């Protein structure tokens, strides 16, 4: 076993082949271009303080494909979906959540981002039994902050993540309410479409089986198909990457301050929630990762619309971003 002493795993296992790889034909490319033109027409004006962040999100190569795949390549449906997410992001501002705002939610280790599955997906471990705070909007903001960090850690070509929910030591008191769970599912299914690759549930006691019956109406069929209960984790996660709590070889000694500092540093998050590194540097960094992608199935580069950042765009300047972020007011995600 590897005794990590709380050392974060930031790369997939050596030799990992990133999957799935999405290939788009001419018809797909035409719809992607049409969706990009649509979102270009919705882009906030440059005078808006959130403009650089919206432009940054729309310029990411996976944004438009994910919404078209979720809509089964029905363009009008994809437009409605991405419009809804644009409205949500303008209100929630997921890129601008200061680490200190949600830090208390992470202290117990109830949600930990660490390691990668066999296909190179970042793993988020959720342990409801470690709940340490009363229900509040901050819990949702913490979850979104972790989702954004998981996307930061995705190796090139990977667009999805894996969630392992461990109900060991969970009680009726610590288990999230169906109301909270439905809000979490709404965020995942509506605003992080095609981002959940696998959802694994382990150690679910019979006492809590009602919980999944309660949230079943909120699960779309695609999400339901991605859920598995008590599978063989060794088929899904390399032993070297799997937490020893689940039978893996990676002994992760929980040290909150060490863990938190590593996540914030690796993902380049500034104290005000903006980015420490320039976007060009952040995009270049994953190139050194050890995961490999089969070149014959690589996703073709998409033609970017007018929303693509150029070398002189304002989001490239960390000082300007910091000034913009400081002028923003964070919105209550539950009451909004």
Automatic annotation (TrEMBL):
<dbReference type="GO" id="GO:0008526">
    <property type="term" value="F:phosphatidylinositol transfer activity"/>
</dbReference>
<dbReference type="InterPro" id="IPR036865">
    <property type="entry name" value="CRAL-TRIO_dom_sf"/>
</dbReference>
<protein>
    <recommendedName>
        <fullName>CRAL-TRIO domain-containing protein</fullName>
    </recommendedName>
</protein>
<dbReference type="InterPro" id="IPR001251">
    <property type="entry name" value="CRAL-TRIO_dom"/>
</dbReference>
<feature type="region of interest" description="Disordered">
    <location>
        <begin position="277"/>
        <end position="321"/>
    </location>
</feature>
<dbReference type="Pfam" id="PF00650">
    <property type="entry name" value="CRAL_TRIO"/>
</dbReference>
<dbReference type="Pfam" id="PF03765">
    <property type="entry name" value="CRAL_TRIO_N"/>
</dbReference>
<dbReference type="InterPro" id="IPR052578">
    <property type="entry name" value="PI_Transfer_CRAL-TRIO"/>
</dbReference>
<dbReference type="InterPro" id="IPR036273">
    <property type="entry name" value="CRAL/TRIO_N_dom_sf"/>
</dbReference>
<dbReference type="InterPro" id="IPR011074">
    <property type="entry name" value="CRAL/TRIO_N_dom"/>
</dbReference>
<feature type="domain" description="CRAL-TRIO">
    <location>
        <begin position="101"/>
        <end position="254"/>
    </location>
</feature>
